[in-house]
Task: inverse folding
């Protein structure tokens, strides 16, 4: 049996006034995904456990059957795994965005205008060189990632993860002064102080950096601030490969997802032109998934574009990204599996909603469709937030989605 998860990050939504109360999934043209729902079984999945933050780390861990209350130790440590950074048990790692602040000190965007990898690498290198490079009594090390997504590691055992930080994509328009790191307990005081210090000094370095001068001259947003969030230590996770006796791979442009995949025992497959945006290489991901299934049992294909469109509050782009996902990724994977004659299971779902009217993640249950070769269908005729409620899966919780996915009866 070949098994594929195709995840459109943030793909589901709330009713949109401009669409007459419909959602982007309801109006997008998506015949391949609708076919999977019509010929398969559907339902909803509560990917955000009650009381937890509605982040992609929580949601994607839930999709793969992990309890984030137990194994989530912060987003940064997951991204460190993807980047090949071997954390010691006492190290604290966290996500470090490059972003744009408005002149009045409010957050303009969480991505520095989706800064390029090359520009970002220069900035992160210069920040690391200027702000410690792992030296001193409270060392800090910056590691360059992809576009605006980077990593800060506080090594040596001096730091605590008991610090309250705030994801910038959920606070666009908010004043930075209201969101700076603060101690969650007395143990976190020194760490919060150090993070605020790094934030202030980084702003000074970035203010007149040649990369930012060039971006401003070109009409682009400058990366004039760092933003640290989601601190934690290395998690302990049972590999999916052990739990279900499978071999598998993960395909994503996002370090968070690659890191989760690594801890889950999945091989990381890199696709040229995979960007995490609407211009990502959908066809390349589809081809890579089919090639991976030649020698593996399971592939997790993650696409970030729909989430970024939601954060940008760009309704037209979100609809277009759903249609790209359908025509350029889901359709060729489905056709390739049928051409191979494989006995297969394909699941399509988001990790969480990212409503375009707010630009923030939400914690509503997400629509799920699971298609299997030669298996009976249920009542759903297409794929959207309302239609899947007719399906036989009902409301899935905890690890019920992954159990339903790998069920062989």
Result:
């Amino acid at each position: 049996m070949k098994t594929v998860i195709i995840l459109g990050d943030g793909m589901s939504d709330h009713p949109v006034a401009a669409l007459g109360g419909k959602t982007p999934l309801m109006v997008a043209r998506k015949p391949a995904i609708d076919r999977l729902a019509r010929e398969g079984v559907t339902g909803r999945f509560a990917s955000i456990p009650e009381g937890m933050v509605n982040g992609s780390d929580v949601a994607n861990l839930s999709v793969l059957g992990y309890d984030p209350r137990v194994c989530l130790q912060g987003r940064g440590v997951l991204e460190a795994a993807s980047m090949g950074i071997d954390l010691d048990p006492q190290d604290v790692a966290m996500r470090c965005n490059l972003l744009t602040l408005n002149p009045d000190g409010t957050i303009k965007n969480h991505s520095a205008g989706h800064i390029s990898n090359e520009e970002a690498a220069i900035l992160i290198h210069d920040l690391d060189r200027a702000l410690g490079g792992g030296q001193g009594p409270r060392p800090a090390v910056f590691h360059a990632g992809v576009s605006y997504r980077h990593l800060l590691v506080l090594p040596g055992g001096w730091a605590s993860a008991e610090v309250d930080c705030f994801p910038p994509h959920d606070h666009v328009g908010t004043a930075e002064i209201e969101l700076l790191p603060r101690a969650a307990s007395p143990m976190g005081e020194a760490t919060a102080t150090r993070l605020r210090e790094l934030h202030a000094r980084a702003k000074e370095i970035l203010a007149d950096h040649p990369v930012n001068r060039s971006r401003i001259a070109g009409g682009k947003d400058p990366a004039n601030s760092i933003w640290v969030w989601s601190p934690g230590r290395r998690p302990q996770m049972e590999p999916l490969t052990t739990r279900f006796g499978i071999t598998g791979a993960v395909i994503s442009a996002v370090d968070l997802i690659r890191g989760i995949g690594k801890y889950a025992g999945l091989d990381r497959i890199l696709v040229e032109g995979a960007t995490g945006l609407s211009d990502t290489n959908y066809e390349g991901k589809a081809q890579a998934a089919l090639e991976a299934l030649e020698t593996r049992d399971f592939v997790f294909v993650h696409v970030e574009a729909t989430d970024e469109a939601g954060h940008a509050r760009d309704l037209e782009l979100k609809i277009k990204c759903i249609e790209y996902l359908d025509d350029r990724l889901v359709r060729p994977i489905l056709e390739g599996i049928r051409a191979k004659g494989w006995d297969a299971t394909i699941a399509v779902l988001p990790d969480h909603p990212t409503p375009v009217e707010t630009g923030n993640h939400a914690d509503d249950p997400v629509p799920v469709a699971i298609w299997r070769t030669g298996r009976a269908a249920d009542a759903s005729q297409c794929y959207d937030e309302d239609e899947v409620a007719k399906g036989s899966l009902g409301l899935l919780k905890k690890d019920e989605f992954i159990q339903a996915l790998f069920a062989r009866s």
About this structure: The longest strand covers residues 92-101.
